[in-house]
Amino acid sequence: NLDISATNIQLKDASGNNKLQTNGGGIAVTGNATVSGNLSVGGVLTYEDVVNVDSVGIVTARSGVFIPDNNRLHIGNTAGTGDLQIYHNGTDSRIHSLTNTLSVRANQFDIRSYNVANYFINCTSSGAVELYRSNAKRLETKTTGISVTGTADISTGLAVGTSGVQNSNVASFK
User: Fold this and answer.
1) C-beta of residue 9 within 8 angstroms of C-beta of residue 23
2) Helix or strand run (H / E) with residue 137
3) Dihedral sign for Cα atoms in the order 86, 88, 92, 98
4) Which of 5, 37, 100, 167 has its CA 20 to 30 A from that of 76?
5) For strand 171-172 and strand 158-159, is the pairing parallel, antiparallel, or unpaired?
6) What whole-number distance in Å separates Cα of residue 117 and Cα of residue 135?
7) How many CB atoms lie within 10 A of CB 150?
8) Structure pTM?
């Protein structure tokens, strides 16, 4: 049944239920809609329980993006063979750069344990790099060289200054 009025059009099924209706905001469809060709949307498309989405442009995921274990986020190249891949294999989280260098740029960068309290590596905005063991700073780069806190266990010798190659069991100071 088709009802046409001055303000809207309604298409009803045999039981009199609205299936398609125009309104001031556009078209409302009740039930399933099958599109056999391409569907172009010029505004915002809101959808739920969709298996595959092919989007050109920006995708906004209001509640985040969930990728199950062993499925990868592929970035670059072509679908399924991304140059950069991020995934979780059920045990470990992985970042793979399949081409050349993985470059991370930031004014300050650190790697910490999950509970955020324990540093492993801290790279400061001034250019220093700090290495930690059990959240205690053990090695730090400085403008004049390095600073080691604790004992440095050197198994193949130590050369200090410009004195050249040293015996592997001797430390020399100049």
Assistant:
1) no
2) strand 136-142
3) negative
4) 37
5) parallel
6) 8
7) 10
8) 0.57
DSSP string, 72-100: EEEESSSTT--SEEEEE-SS-EEEEE-SS
Q: Which residues have CB under 8 Å from 16's CB, separation 6+?
A: 1
pLDDT tens by residue, the chain, 174 residues: 888 887 888 888 888 888 888 877 788 888 888 888 887 777 877 777 777 777 777 777 778 888 899 998 988 877 667 899 999 999 999 999 988 889 999 999 999 988 767 999 999 999 999 999 988 999 999 999 999 999 888 887 776 666 555 555 555 555
Adjacent-strand bridge partners of 27:
22
Residue 73 to residue 96: CA distance in whole angstroms: 10
Written as one string, the DSSP assignment of 100-160 is: S------SSEEEE-TTSS-EEEEE-TTS-EEEEETTEEEEEEETTEEEE-S----SS-EE-
The alpha-carbon radius of gyration of the chain (Å, integer) is 31
